[in-house]
Amino acid sequence: MISNLLNTLIGTSLYCYFQLSASPFTVFIDSRNPILVSLFRSSAMAKDPVRVLVTGAAGQIGYALVPMIARGIMLGPDQPVILHMLDIPPAAEALNGVKMELVDAAFPLLKGVIATTDVVEACTGVNVAVMVGGFPRKEGMERKDVMSKNVSIYKSQASALEKHAAANCKVLVVANPANTNALILKEYAPSIPEKNITCLTRLDHNRALGQISEKLNVQVSDVKNVIIWGNHSSTQYPDVTHATVTTPAGEKSVPELVKDDEWLKSGFISTVQQRGAAIIKARKLSSALSAASSACDHIRDWVCGTPEGTWVSMGTVPAGLIYSFPVTCRNGEWTIVQGENFSIFPVVFPLMSSQGRS
Amino acid sequence: MFRYIWSFVDVEKDPLVVLVTGAAGQVGYALVPMIAGGSMLGPDQPIILHMLDIEPAAEILKGVKMELLDGAFPLLKGVIATTNVIEACKGVDIAIMLGGFPRRKGDSKDLIFRNVGIYKAQASALEQHADSNCKVLVVANPANTNALILKEFAPSIPDENITSLTRLDHNRALNQISENLNVHVGDVKNVIIWGNHSSYVYPDANHATVDIGAGLKPVRELIADDQWLNTEFITNVQQRGQAIIKSRRLSSAFSTASAACDHMRDWILGTPKGTWVSMGVYSDGSYGIQPGLIYSFPVTCEKGEWLIVQGLKIDEFAREKMDAVAKELMEEKAVAYSCLH
């Protein structure tokens, strides 16, 4: 608490400090508070802009994501950003329209926008890359067809990132099949440190938190430490063994409060696994705002750190495969949560099924 | 800082109930995560969202509610997704009206006719069920006239609580100036949008300034091109919506949503010192504009109230433009009233 207050007074970690309160902080602040305003101004002036690349930016998820980035939801209310948006030539006009809307919104943190179909221009100097672009699976397509189309996309983007991105560029792959696309990227960009290539399982993580909060009728912000093991696909496994709910009487174990192991091992898992399909059925479009929001959560926690006592799920590469683990983040690095009494069931089961699949 | 200190004293703010009508549409989809994420009312203000749309959109609305839950937004304390206008309006503190009949090819009379019925019904429900100090922002076009209908049929909602959105044009105007001068948009302020969000909108840079580091300089002086300011600048802002439709094949959604957040945030939390913004508000005769219209003026905001900036010099050119848009609004008002009587 004291060191956090000190940080706040110095003004360098204001955003991260607010993050400890588990409240996503936004770009503005009550302008009637002169101390905070001047702290903000001085820290805003002190920071160089971070370059954030979004591929597939002309699509649905991109459209939800770019205003979140420009408003400071991804990197904090005192972090200026320069947005690089990449898409394919048929989407160039639409991408230009997105750029126009970005500038029309007069976001104070947005210091520049590049909208391009040129992968080299897009990747140049980039500090954070969110890969939303990919070839989606269409009806009647075999899995291997989807994969071969994505291999060529991720191979060329890997090359460009490796040659032109800033050192220590952090990469988040969102486009499905996310784990596989991230693996391809890693293969063809060997000089990008393995630990810097991740894929998104935060959406499933947040969906699991949401399901628990609904079941127990508590606020979702009081639920934490679910784990998403494995692959963002229908074999992924949401595990609540170590999840807790913050109650006035302290932290309570989720399995104990739910008192329904049957549901936790079946209904709960299949609801989270099939949530994407449920949303497509309702909206006639796939999830965009929740995907974008969880991409922001993933990057923000990675860069600014996870709150004390809380872990999140990230698809990472500790042993040559991209696999989702529970991690904590500090000083821009993730660490797999160790030393917990995790059963091997969640680790072994999906691995077995993924071998069967390829 | 607030959260940590407050958590010791255990004082969390009561949630504010925010209604979004037409929430299943494009602008709604961009707006609801902004509200849930704290961009509209601040990082320490919990929210309960009420989303309203018509029956054909009920499934889609349900999908949006699912996604909001999946967003695990800490500030979002509840979501109601409904097609029932009374349920939607109950206890509402802030109402953002996105819902309305979209413009089809044809004249704007048609647009007015279609929307009068909607805004009459929603006015009733708001008056009877919303909080007595509910603040309303009308976005759906024709915004000013829809807001006027709302005001007519919700007489117990204070006049000053019903506004329309011209912040999008305001932000677009700031951007046009920043691009022309190659400065950052955050350094430009105090443009004025007079009148109506329509093809007659008049963006006025006469009192706008740029922060050049060594103080504030008038935009007129820095641009040194009155010709551009009186022609292209104006038409760029007027036609920007069309330009975006041309590129995206869809109308502006997130920039509209963002402007709605800016409008509400500044209204409730206050404008920064020395800065004004543009809001469509109930005219009181200021600047020689006919009272009884919803007309966009330069305003400052403090303690949840807006105040028209008075005493700005209006030159002949501006006068003409301001009167032209007032005339357009009076015509729209007449058309709207003719459908009602």
Portion in helices of chain B: 40-55%
What is the approximate shape of chain B? Answer: globular
The main sheet of chain B orders its strands as 3-2-1-4-5-6
Helix content of chain A: 40-55%
Question: Judging from the principal axes of the Cα atoms, what is the shape of chain A?
Answer: globular
CATH-assigned fold name of the largest domain in chain A? Rossmann fold
Summed up, the domain count of chain A is: 3
Per DSSP, the total helix count of chain A is 15
Round the mean pLDDT of chain B to the nearest integer and report it: 93
Q: What's the main sheet of chain A like?
A: 6 strands, parallel
**Strand segment tally of chain B:** 14
Strand content of chain B: 15-25%
Series of secondary-structure elements of chain B, N-terminal to C-terminal: HEHEHEHEHEHEHEEEEEHHHHEEEH
Note poorly predicted spans of chain A. 2-44, 344-358
Describe this structure in words.
The complex is a heterodimer of chains A (358) and B (341). Chain A is of the alpha/beta class. Chain A folds into 3 domains: 2-43, no CATH class; 47-199, NAD(P)-binding Rossmann-like Domain (Rossmann fold, 3-Layer(aba) Sandwich), CATH 3.40.50.720; 202-354, L-2-Hydroxyisocaproate Dehydrogenase, Chain A, domain 2. Chain A is 45% helix and 18% strand. Chain A contains 15 helices and 14 strands. In chain A, the strands form 4 sheets. Chain A has a 6-stranded parallel beta sheet with strand order 3-2-1-4-5-6, sandwiched between helices. A 3-stranded antiparallel beta sheet of chain A has the order 7-10-11. A 3-stranded antiparallel beta sheet of chain A has the order 12-13-14. In chain A, helix 7 (143-164) links the parallel strand 4 (128-131) and strand 5 (170-173). In chain A, helix 4 crosses helix 14 (289-304) and helix 9 crosses helix 12. The N and C termini of chain A lie far apart (49 Å). Chain B has 341 residues and is an alpha/beta fold. Chain B is built from 12 helices and 14 strands. Chain B has a 6-stranded parallel beta sheet, with helices on both faces. In chain B, strand 10 (209-211) and strand 11 (216-218) form a beta hairpin. In chain B, helix 5 packs across helix 12 (316-340) and helix 6 crosses helix 12. Chain B is globular, with a radius of gyration of 20 Å. Chain B starts with a helix and ends with a helix.
